[in-house]
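Morning, I've got a small favour to ask if you have a moment. It would help a lot if you went through both lines with me. Thanks so much in advance, here it is.

***
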Amino acid sequence: MPSELEPEPAVLTGALVGYSRVSTRDQNLDRQTDALTAAGCLRIFADKRSGKTSARPELAKALDFMRPGDTLVVASLDRLSRSLQDLIAIVAELRRRGVGFRSLHEQLDTTTPGGRLVFHVFAALAEFIRELIVEGTREGLDAARARGRVGGRPPVMTPEKIAAARSLLPDNSISAIARMVGVSRGTLYAHMDAITKAAS
């Protein structure tokens, strides 16, 4: 059975610990703080940095602070994680430690049978998405190989560009040829053997 679906301890009697994080649109934590306080959180950890940075030092502190029987509470799921995979990983780790999870906006509570069922669906969906991505990537590579291609980016210097560079020699400088062909000087130098062989 996947670790995400491990049974959670039957009784969680510890503290409610809140976590909040600003978003790029809303830099004010008051609404989240009020909701977490009203939910009964005895302590609230807040990350005040927004943007695409993955650093969440206060979340790390919250996770370190909690003990078996405690419950982590957030105002909404997007305050805890940026993706379904991230959410599954965090909540699965909480469950392994005997810590519950509750999201107020979505009314998701892993300390209840209904909440655990919803989270099982999330975990199964995440696994299904992973399998689809892997299968799609494999099929794409197989199709590319069948057409004589392998994975990776297409070559910068195509046969057409080599022929164009050859036709510009020796009347133009390397810099001018690179500019006209649409590649860097380094790329042109790297393919100089092919260009000069084609010219000979």
Remarks:
- The beta strands are 16-21, 43-47, 71-74, 100-103, 108-109.
- Residues 113-146 form the longest helix (34 residues).
- DSSP finds nine helices and five strands in the chain.
